[in-house]
Amino acid sequence: MAIKVIKEKCVGCGACVTVCPADAINMIDKKAIITDKCIACGACINKCPVEAIFKEEGNKGGVNIDEYRGVWVFAEQREGKTLNVVRELLGEGRKIADELETELTAVLLGHNIEDEANLLIKYGADKVIYANHELLGVYTTDGYAKVIYDLIQERKPEIMLIGATNIGRDLGPRLSAKVHTGLTADCTRLDVDKENRRLMMTRPAFGGNLMATILCPNHRPQMSTVRPGVMEKAKIDENREGIVQVVKPELKDSDIKAKVIETVKSDKPVVALEEAPIIVSGGRGLGGEEGFKLIEDLAEKLGGVVGASRATVDSQWIEQSHQVGQTGKTVRPGLYVACGISGAIQHLAGMQDSKCIVAINKDPNAPIFEVADYGIVGDLYEVIPELIQALDNVDD
Ligand code: FAD
């Protein structure tokens, strides 16, 4: 879909320019001209007093999908280091590319980070497109969207995977709107139908009560943001070889509307739940904020970190960064201990792939016991101190 101006009707009033959120309309010779910054939001259509602007529906049959080949992974970096989710996407992307008998390409944007580009090959990419530019050192929506959009137009990948991080959740929708393709956000599973090269993108829907598998049959690339912590990480192969293509994108200061002046890091400790091999989580059964002291004690004893249900986060007993579940983090540790957590489907969505689940709950019918490998029915204020005591005895 594209926004078009009927020149004969345009009276050059400029109303569309003032309302455009993407600064995508120029007035030239008293006629509105839509530039490639357009995000097709349609704000100008509603504002135009003479109905000179319309949305062209375009080819409903989509693009010629045979022109599109290859799987791309967005290699998100912060301060020059790619995130763990990139290794997860490379692991999953590798499987999909092998299934489709095509290339896996990592797309890295940054400034002077050649070493990271080489590392992506060792994690399974056949090729790395490394866009090196001083304006790409720090993420900006406009800069990154423009460069990746240009690359997609030129090289036509059939699949593009992006981590559902804060940056990925900003970049993915912007890119898909620019390219006029679909995006399935926050996927927890990806499969591929080899016969028609369709990516089957699965994500929780309707409040997590069912899993929806979404297809993008007529447009390319098929785009998906994938939750961090869900897919298995690619393993490093020091001997792997591939191609690193360095590109110098055409990018000017004026292409980027929002300037990053300073990055201020939160002084609150960030809990790396997705990486933790052991997680002890507390729920509403703790009865109050102070209950997390007991959870911390058990986590420390086991060498793990503290997780939480959303009920406790909503009650402000603990920071949101600890939340596990559909709207929190997805984890798959070796050991997950759920204390005073009922096992709502939205919580299970974030932890049910843990290797070993231990549940402590005073209600023998709590749904958490259905996914638990070991269940302890009892008051957590009695059970946890006994566990800690038992672990102390083991230490002794
Ligand atoms: P409760 O359901 O109230 O369970 C408390 C449990 O503690 C009970 O089973 C009780 O038997 C037990 N208990 C009480 N006292 C004791 C005791 N002394 N000893 C032992 N056991 C005790 N939730 C999440 O966790 N993560 C999410 O990401 C998430 N996302 C959501 C997204 C949407 C769109 C919606 C609608 C909901 C979401 N929720 C999420 C909320 C979810 O539906 C539940 O409300 C929440 O998980 C319940 O938290 P809980 O198990 O701590 O509390």
Give an account of the 3D structure.
There is one protein chain. It is built from eleven helices and 21 strands. The protein has 396 residues and is of the alpha/beta class. The protein has a seven-stranded parallel β-sheet with strand order 11-15-10-5-8-9-16, with helices on both faces. Strand 19, helix 9 (345-351) and strand 20 form a beta-alpha-beta unit. Helix 5 crosses helix 6 and helix 7 (292-302) runs parallel beside helix 11 (380-395). The radius of gyration is 25 Å and the shape is globular. It binds flavin-adenine dinucleotide. Flavin-adenine dinucleotide binds next to helix 8, helix 9, strand 20 and helix 11. The site of flavin-adenine dinucleotide has 30 residues, from helix 8, helix 9, strand 20 and helix 11.
Give structural attributes:
single chain, 396 residues, alpha/beta, 5-stranded parallel β-sheet, 25% strand, globular, binds flavin-adenine dinucleotide, metal-binding, 4Fe4S_Fe-S-bd, iron-sulfur cluster binding, Electron transfer flavoprotein subunit alpha
Rg: 25 Å
Low-confidence parts, pLDDT < 50 over ≥5 residues?
none
Spatial arrangement of strands, main beta sheet: 11-15-10-5-8-9-16
Distance between the termini: 69 Å
- Number of distinct helices: 11
What's the helical proportion of residues?
A: 25-40%
> What class would the helix/strand composition place it in?
alpha/beta
Give the bound compounds: flavin-adenine dinucleotide
Proportion of strand residues: 25-35%
Number of strands: 21
Biggest sheet descriptor: 7 strands, parallel
Tell me the overall shape.
Answer: globular
Q: If you average the pLDDT, what whole number results? A: 93
